[in-house]
Amino acid sequence: MERIRCDEARAPVGFGLGRDSRIVIVGTSGSGKSELARRLSRALGVRDIELDALHWKPNWEESGDEEFREKIRVSVAGAGGFVIHGNYGRVRDLTWGACDTMIWLDYPRAVVMSRVIRRTLGRILSREELWNGNVETWKSSVFSRDSIILWAWSTYAKRRRQYGSLTDDDCYGIRRMITLRKPRDARLLLRSIGRDLTRAGA
After folding, report:
1. Distances (CA, A) of 118 to 32, 53, 133, 199
2. Is the pTM of this model over 0.90?
3. Closest CA to 92 of 107, 78, 102
4. Residue pair 131/56 in contact by the 8 Å Cβ criterion
5. Domains delineated in the chain
6. Which is nearest to 23 in space by CA: 5, 4, 47?
7. CA-CA distance, 92 to 98, in Å (whole number)?
8. Is the pLDDT of residue 88 over 90?
9. What confidence tens digit (pLDDT) does each residue in 142-185 have?
């Protein structure tokens, strides 16, 4: 597996992303996977597959394992290219196994925590509808043992170790891992797409 650091030195060469790229974005909860996925899918013209939207049913009911797996199969079927995002280890054979590129958001803890706090408070105050009518509340998202803020803090180091120690055998045939160390790396990656598509004649 080719390991690529997203920085100014690599940008002129490009990152090899195109309209047939099959990408999975990984990182700690709250790091910005979904926002980057949406922007990448628009820039590349590929399908955006959000695992949370497939997993959660109304009233925060979780999909059963086989139901969840079937939703994933349907979502990737027939797609020339796509971006998958969400941390669900039990379906990696379907998600990572369908991809050729992994993008790892390896951001500092301070960046992740500021993002997840800002996002959570914004969703609560605006009553933003998430997946299948679900909304975050003060009780569930802040004052709870299942708080997404607490979860992001407590799993940060573990996730970073897991993704940092991945071997080729762990990655289901993924051919390249692009590591982003700070938010400006994401902006650099997005700016590079136009050049990559031009090179490919897309």
Report:
1. 12, 21, 21, 38
2. yes
3. 102
4. yes
5. 2-200 (3.40.50.300)
6. 47
7. 9
8. yes
9. 999 889 999 999 999 999 999 999 998 889 999 999 999 999 99
